[in-house]
Amino acid sequence: MRSIQPRVLPCDERLVWSGRRAAGGAGAGYGGGVSNGCDHLEMINEVAPSADGCEDCLAVGGRWVHLRLCLTCGHVGCCDSSPAKHATAHFHGAGHPLVQSFEPGEDWVWCYADEALLRVSGLPERAHG
Description:
Layout: E1 7-9, H1 55-60, E2 67-70, E3 76-78, H2 86-94, E4 98-101, E5 109-111, E6 116-121
Antiparallel strand pairs: 1-6, 2-3, 2-4, 4-5, 5-6
């Protein structure tokens, strides 16, 4: 895998995130805010999606709500609104903190480690088919 040279762009304040923030963060809960801080951009690689749906749900006949693409290895997992939360499980198991939305019309990146919503330049637009 070839590493790309990402750059964080300012986020659109209309974006909503639902993560927790450390004290002094940009907000908490739905509608709290966006962040431009992340210490893991060097972990972004050019990746190919591992599947056109949640790789783990497909293996066991599960279902998902939304999909996330790991920017370190290409694993496609389901979001935290899905029953199995495979994208988060992948972060905890593999230690890969950055995911890009794998939904049509969405271009944001989430860093699990920093609980930061990002827009990163240089990433291709991606969505499941």
